[in-house]
Amino acid sequence: MKQQFTAMALAFALAGCASQSTPVAPTPPKVASPTTAGTLTKRELADGLYEMALSPKGDALYVASAEGFKDVQGGVVYKLDPQSLKTLGLSHTDLKNFGMALSEDGQTVFVTHSLDGGLSALNTADGKVKARLLFPERNEKGLPFGARQILLHNDTLYVGAVADPAVIWVVDANTLKLKTRIKNTGKWMTGLHYSSQTGRIYAANGGGEILVINPRNHRIEQRWKPLGDKPALLLNIAEDRDTGRLFVTDNSKAKTTLVLDIRSGKVIKQLDIGDSLGVVYNAKRHEIYVSQRESGNVLSLDASTYAVKKRWSVKPNPNSLLLSADGETLFVTVKQPFNKDHSTTGPDSVVRIALNH
């Protein structure tokens, strides 16, 4: 995530009317073939790659793409083979795609359109956009609130707004109708996480807070500020359900990963591993994975001692992380630096890391 605090800048790091869409293409355009080196398989794919989702059967990897930001309209949702990273299909959308979530049955992929303040639902069978919701909120410059992270829980979508003050939109996942708004959520809603252990949603924001939200009544029950008055822009959240720990990253101010008690918000440990963006916990291997966008690494940490076990160099800028259901494969989107005109020097990549090697 770039550190300018605008919807576009936050979107660059990374949640209606009918969409112009193209069904999943049986013959995609020619692109670079995946390359394998040891445990890593890398595929240069396209400009503007952000979040990913894996099908319930593990046979399709969906990747949200905003495509280029200079003289390029719209985006693409890519469907890749999770083993080879070869393209299985793609769907063109008239808006740019950033955040992503997949329905439990694997039939619908949801994408957020950060620059346009909305989200779409796509049918995974044919790649067509089924529904679209654009939120009406505008900032002082007349621009839409940036729709960043998207969380699917109990047939409900929670979408965080990059705005000051921010909101969390609560949307019916089946109809894409706005149900309500969770207000007073601070500045720049970023990470969203649901814990089945506590039955609560945890929301990070750019003011250094973690909000504890009851999804039954959408009330904010607690507000934690783990670093106190120190500047912090908390980003992404992962959970170790067995020990009741939350892992929260900050890639802007504190440049750290926090380990918090999930019930009290107390800081158990502050990990001094450098800049931290994406974070994932692997219960089967008892490991924590952190992407370091500035340093160009993905780290594997021992979840008990917090010692670095492995360091994968995936330069230039690793971004989002996704873990397979069996805990044996880690997927990473790797971004290229932006030029001043929002162009890049080449396409972003998807990296597949085999963890059992």
List the helices and strands and how they pair.
Elements: H1 7-13, E1 35-37, E2 40-46, E3 49-54, E4 61-65, E5 75-80, E6 87-93, E7 100-102, E8 108-113, E9 118-123, E10 129-134, E11 146-153, E12 156-162, E13 168-172, E14 178-182, E15 189-195, E16 200-205, E17 210-214, E18 219-224, E19 234-240, E20 245-250, E21 256-261, E22 267-271, E23 279-282, E24 287-292, E25 297-302, E26 308-313, E27 317-323, E28 329-335, E29 348-354
Identify the strand order in the major beta sheet: 1-2-29-28-27
Q: Which superfamily, in CATH terms, is the homologous superfamily? A: YVTN repeat-like/Quinoprotein amine dehydrogenase
Poorly predicted tracts of residues? 1-7, 13-31
End-to-end separation in angstroms reads 30 Å
Content of β-strand: over 45%
- Average pLDDT, rounded to a whole number, is 90
Assign the CATH topology.
Methylamine Dehydrogenase, Chain H
> How many independent structural domains?
1
CATH architecture call: 7 Propeller
Number of strands: 29
Helical percentage: under 10%
| Total helical elements | 1
Name of the CATH class: Mainly Beta
Q: State the oligomer.
A: single chain
Question: Compute the gyration radius: what is it?
Answer: 19 Å
Class by SSE composition: mainly beta
Question: Which descriptor suits the 3D outline?
Answer: globular
Give a short account of the largest sheet: 5 strands, antiparallel
Order of helices and strands: HEEEEEEEEEEEEEEEEEEEEEEEEEEEEE
